[in-house]
Write a structure and sequence with these properties.
It is built from one helix and six strands, in the order E-E-H-E-E-E-E. By secondary structure, the protein is mostly beta strands. It has one domain. Strand 3 (51-56) and strand 4 form a beta hairpin. The longest helix has 12 residues, at 34-45.
Length: 90
């Protein structure tokens, strides 16, 4: 059995397929992999469309949702990032 990791995730709106940040929700998700974290978050927020990976830098993965102007960033947990202090934990 693999151990679980913690990922910081942001859900935001997109404009023309690019992140727009007119609104943003932050989550801290515990899962075995980045893919597992994305699936867990998608179920939590009720995403109905298919997720499409736009880019993966190794540190950050960005997915968009087909049929919705929504994007999801996934990155490894950072204890120093002040934006995630009040993140919703899943």
């Amino acid at each position: 059995m693999g151990f679980k990791r913690v990922y910081d995730m942001e859900v935001t709106d997109t404009f023309g397929g690019e992140p727009n940040y007119s609104w943003c929700q932050r989550f801290r998700v515990t899962a075995k992999s980045k893919r597992g974290a994305i699936i867990k978050l998608s179920k939590h927020i009720g995403t109905q469309g298919r997720l499409v990976k736009q880019y993966d830098t190794g540190d950050v993965v960005f997915h968009t949702v087909i049929g919705a102007a929504v994007g999801i960033f996934t990155m490894s947990k950072s204890d120093t990032d002040p934006f995630f202090r009040n993140a919703i934990e899943l």
